[in-house]
């Protein structure tokens, strides 16, 4: 920080590095096996839940569809999810997860068809965001015990969901969305994020449809980048 | 410790979704507004990685695919720190890179550019930042290459960079360019970024003091991820 800025009481932050498209060859870096060669001993992200995770084993499949109605065949999707107890594999994730449960994975689309799919466990509901505020705000509140703030709407747990991040050639900054489950009608109806979407008919773009194939539940989730029924994307 | 949110992303520093000069963005850009979310557990957490996930050679692109010698090209070191908007280091985070070879050709079954594949160059690497957020790679300088957009567009030499941070909302993919490259100001992909300073920050700077004399030249590239609001830790204000 420049001293002159400090003297001016000007808060000083570094600007975030700008995003650039992952480009058509994202697989080289993040999934080299798919690019056609073997280089690393271990590729990352192919096993989301691990062998010990509790809960229902599911498969998730879909297409990413562009504004012309065509499948996008060079997408990379990352998934981030809680386990069946609603806990994330993170120091602040709400508790312990099963050994081997990472809750993160990456998948690429088939170069010919654009179909993608991954196996995981169905996540549980995730605890409410709670009063997530800065230390400064906490100090203010602690000195005014009757201060209620916006706690009410922050105390609703979130329905089971997968967090998805989509990158590809032509996508300048990764797109964040969520996938919810159509067999969680009551939880979805109360979900604070779905309810934040003003246009009720757009909420359906985030809900995957369940079928059963060879005894395994399969959720279908097509992502539409633009056009009719454009998927809801989030600024997180 | 009470969980804390991350600062909202300043999207004016990032390319918008629709950038017609970069034609592929036209059909792949959402037309409706993003829905802004306050950080929840789903956004302030993210995957963690350790040294067990990678191998020590993974950050050496000169050696990590070498078969019968070193790859052809200008030997370079790319190094820097991963920081957050509070200027604090981001330790133990995964940094992944991928790039074309010195002739501008990717080792990818979908790349058919006529420049040859280098048998000793894979073109990808990864590392985990140390306690100070520091990282480095050794590689060869990638070549410029033509791409189909307008009839005669060339990408400036660049290295793709992927960073995780500690929260899914910090996830970032970007591209590193090299100081002085005349293709930077005329590249439709670089120029999707609306802010000239933001482009300059994507341009790695020559760092003569960090090179290895008679061996490799160095470029410095710091990466800034989103920062986080201060939290209370044992009744003490952390950060800010």
Layout: helices, strands, pairs:
The complex is a heterodimer of chains A (236) and B (240).
Chain A (H helix, E strand, L loop, with lengths): L2 H5 L18 H5 L1 H4 L21 E6 L1 E2 L10 E6 L22 E5 L7 E6 L13 H8 L18 E7 L7 E7 L3 H6 L9 H4 L3 E7 L2 E5 L2 E2 L9 E2 L1
Chain B lengths: L23 H4 L7 E2 L4 H4 L30 E10 L9 E6 L24 E5 L5 E7 L4 E3 L5 E3 L2 E6 L8 E7 L17 H6 L1 E4 L10 E4 L2 E3 L5 E3 L2 E3 L2
Parallel strand pairs in B: 2-11, 2-12, 9-10
Antiparallel strand pairs in B: 2-5, 3-4, 3-8, 6-7, 8-9, 10-11, 13-14
Summarize this structure briefly:
The complex is a heterodimer of chains A (236) and B (240). Chain A is of the alpha/beta class.
Structural summary, described in words:
The complex is a heterodimer of chains A (236) and B (240). With 236 residues, chain A is α/β, with parallel strands linked by helices. Chain A has a domain at 44-127 and 154-224: Protocatechuate 3,4-Dioxygenase, subunit A. Helix content of chain A is 14%, strand content 23%. Chain A contains 6 helices and 11 strands. Chain A has helices at 3-7, 26-30, 32-35, 135-142, 185-190, 200-203; strands at 57-62, 64-65, 76-81, 104-108, 116-121, 161-167, 175-181, 207-213, 216-220, 223-224, 234-235. In chain A, the strands form 2 sheets. Chain A has an 8-stranded mixed β-sheet. The radius of gyration of chain A is 20 Å and the shape is globular. Chain A starts with a helix and ends with a strand. The model of chain A has no long low-confidence stretch (mean pLDDT 92). By secondary structure, chain B is mainly β. Chain B has a domain at 66-224: Sandwich (Protocatechuate 3,4-Dioxygenase, subunit A), CATH 2.60.130. Chain B is 6% helix and 28% strand. Chain B contains 3 helices and 14 strands. In chain B, strands 2, 3, 4, 5, 8, 9, 10, 11 and 12 form a 9-stranded mixed β-sheet that branches. A two-stranded antiparallel ribbon of chain B has the order 6-7. In chain B, strands 13-14 form a two-stranded antiparallel sheet. In chain B, a hairpin with an 8-residue loop joins strand 8 and strand 9 (172-178). The mean pLDDT of chain B is 95. The chains are: A alpha/beta (236), B mainly beta (240). Strand 11 of chain A pairs parallel with strand 1 (35-36) of chain B.
């Amino acid at each position: 920080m420049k001293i002159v800025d400090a003297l001016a009481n000007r808060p000083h932050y570094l600007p975030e590095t700008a995003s650039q498209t992952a480009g058509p060859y994202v697989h080289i870096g993040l999934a080299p096996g798919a690019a056609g060669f073997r280089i690393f001993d271990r590729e990352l992200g192919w096993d989301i839940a691990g062998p010990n995770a509790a809960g229902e084993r599911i498969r998730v499949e879909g297409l990413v569809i562009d504004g012309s109605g065509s499948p996008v065949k060079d997408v990379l999707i990352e998934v981030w999810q809680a386990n069946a107890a609603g806990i994330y594999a993170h120091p602040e994730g709400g508790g312990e997860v099963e050994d081997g449960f990472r809750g993160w994975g990456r998948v690429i689309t088939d170069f010919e068809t654009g179909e993608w799919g991954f196996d995981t466990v169905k996540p549980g509901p995730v605890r409410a965001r709670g009063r997530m505020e800065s230390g400064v705000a906490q100090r203010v509140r602690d000195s005014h015990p009757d201060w209620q703030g916006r706690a009410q709407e922050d105390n609703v747990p979130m329905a089971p969901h997968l967090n998805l991040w989509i990158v590809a050639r032509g996508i300048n900054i990764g797109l964040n969305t969520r996938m919810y489950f159509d067999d969680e009608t009551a939880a979805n109806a109360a979900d604070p994020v779905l309810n934040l979407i003003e246009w009720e008919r757009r909420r359906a773009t985030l809900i995957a449809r369940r079928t059963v194939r060879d005894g395994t539940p399969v959720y279908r989730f097509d992502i539409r980048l633009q056009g009719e029924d454009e998927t809801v994307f989030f600024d997180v | 410790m009470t969980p804390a949110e991350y600062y909202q992303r300043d999207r004016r520093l990032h390319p918008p979704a629709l950038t017609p000069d970069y034609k592929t963005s036209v059909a792949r850009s959402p037309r409706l507004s993003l829905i802004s979310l306050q950080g929840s557990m789903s956004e302030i957490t993210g995957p963690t990685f350790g040294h067990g996930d990678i191998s020590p050679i993974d950050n050496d692109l000169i050696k990590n695919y070498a078969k019968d010698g070193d790859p052809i090209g200008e030997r370079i070191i790319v190094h820097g720190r991963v920081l957050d908007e509070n200027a604090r280091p981001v330790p133990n985070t995964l940094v992944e890179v991928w790039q074309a070879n010195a002739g501008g050709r990717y080792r990818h079954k979908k790349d058919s550019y006529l420049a040859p594949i280098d048998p000793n160059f894979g073109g990808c690497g990864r590392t985990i930042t140390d306690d100070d957020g520091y990282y480095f790679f050794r590689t060869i300088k990638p070549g410029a290459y033509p791409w189909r957009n307008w009839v005669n567009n060339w990408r400036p030499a660049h290295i793709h960079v992927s960073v995780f941070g500690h929260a899914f909302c910090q996830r970032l993919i970007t591209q590193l360019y090299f100081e002085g490259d005349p293709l930077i100001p005329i590249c439709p992909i670089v120029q999707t970024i609306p802010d000239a300073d933001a482009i300059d920050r994507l341009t790695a700077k020559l760092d003569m003091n960090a090179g290895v004399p008679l061996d490799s030249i160095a470029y410095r590239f710091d990466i800034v991820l989103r920062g986080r609001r201060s939290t209370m830790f044992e009744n003490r204000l952390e950060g800010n």
